Fold this protein.
Amino acid sequence: MRIRGAAPLVLALAALLAPAATAAHATAAHAAADRPEASAAGWTGSWSAAPTVPFAAGISAEGFENRTIRQPLRASTGGEQIRVRLSNVYGTGPLTVDALSVARPRGTGGIAPGSSTDVTFGGAASVTVPAGEEVTSDPVAFAVRPDTDVIASLYVAGPTGPTTWHRLANRTVHLSEPGDHREKVTAAQFPDTTTSFFFVSGLEVATDGDPGSVVAFGDSLTDGVGSTLDAARSYPSVLARRLGGEVGVLNTGIGANQVVNDTEYGSVGALGRFDQDVLTQPGVRDVIWLEGLNDILGAAYFPDEAPTAEEVIDAYRTIIDRAHDHGLRIIGATLPPFRDAAEWTAEGEAMRQTLNAWIRDESGFDGILDADVVWRDAADPVRLNPAYASGDGLHPNDAGYRALAEAVDLSCLSTGPQVRGALSEREDCTLG
């Protein structure tokens, strides 16, 4: 969540890019909402990565040419068939993916021999995704078990241009030497690694009945910054295990994301991306919302552009109404303490207290997940509990994320093994 290494120049570029990013996102959201497969019965989301705006420089701006990108997708629920979603939401031109395959993992960066399976789009091996849009693959006969990785190896022959990516994947992604190396069973032809996802934004599984899915929406606290790399220990991952692998839990956190403002480093704000990242997810019934701290932290860099508490609350109201208009249950989380973060100010702390008081006492959320109570130090409530602190004063460690996931009262969700399709009638769910 902290704007790590974001020099003022980088953040200034964000302000210049924001209008174009918002327009592109709106186009993509509209296109995705019109996809018939997005709401087809019998499919539910199992994994997701929220698309983010490419930077002005670096790997996301340069893109790829004649390379294979091998990415691990952690399934939260299983099935006998899958579909893969590709995103070119923030591309500046058409994206051609020449080949895509899925496989089971074996070893570091490797795949199990004989497990590689081609993925098609309208019966073809390649697909061109227009700028500002997403596509979903044909169904693929590929059995997936909950809490396991599906390895997606994607080959692009021509230059992609700026990429639609997910910057903070907290997973090791392998990049090949030139050529199509999808079938290579080891990482010998993949000399480079990164911790970002590229172009792949969703994994869906075919289901018997309609178990539904939960979307965890937020910033780096949802993304899992501070948790162990490649260990699937973010709070959404732990929550998926608590739900027994029977329900899709989709992580749509974006590091440095704000509620109100668009920035390059934090991508399109929550108001601009909610439709794309929540409403188009197949099977979604519940949303857990943990967002707003970056609107406070951003004031340390651009105080004249920082939203007021009233503006953030107005945005919360808009999101709650949007979720309810689409029949979704939305649980709101309070904002945790950050006294030891570099961006802390007394004014920011006062704004956090104002927002938390509104979330607890006045909001229209269907439940409250009190992250503030779960994560704070009992001896000094404006600081993180030392047992849960990752070391930067802001992000929890593995134990902290586990504690938040365990604070979710499963009976407050409208889907899952504890509900079996019956919406919880509890009007006042206070969790944590």
